[in-house]
Amino acid sequence: MRPIPAGFVQTLTVTVTDEMTVDFGELGAVHPVYATYWMAKHFEEVGRKIILPFLEDGEGGIGSQVEVIHTGPALPGMAVTVTATFTEQAGRRVHATMRAVTELGDEIGHGSTTQFVLPQTRIDANFEALRARWAARVAGTGGS
């Protein structure tokens, strides 16, 4: 992985949809506002945008940590911009801070993400090993 410049920033702007509001499936709809779990998804997405320009051929990234502190609401139809700011590269770990702001200028969340950079072949091999274990279990042959 090539070095990421200090303070490198990426953004992601989304429009909150009804699908992005709080609905816990089994428990049903709770609040008609932007859900914390969608904010977490968007934090991870913009965190990935931090590493993509700096990956070497054959490298891939995988999220390993996300912290979300959800401090305010956004309604369906509102635009939310999530800004990721690179903070540190420690070996294969890339850390970024996150900030979510509505089109009204209200900060509605902040936090951080960590991406882990590995050879893509290693990432793929880990997923294949998991698929093999799962297939063995589904087939009833064990696979521990």
Automatic annotation (TrEMBL):
Annotated Fluoroacetyl-CoA-specific thioesterase-like domain residues: 16-120
Coiled coil location: none
Catalytic center residues: 36, 44, 70
Signal peptide: none
Protein name: Putative thioesterase
Organism: Deinococcus humi
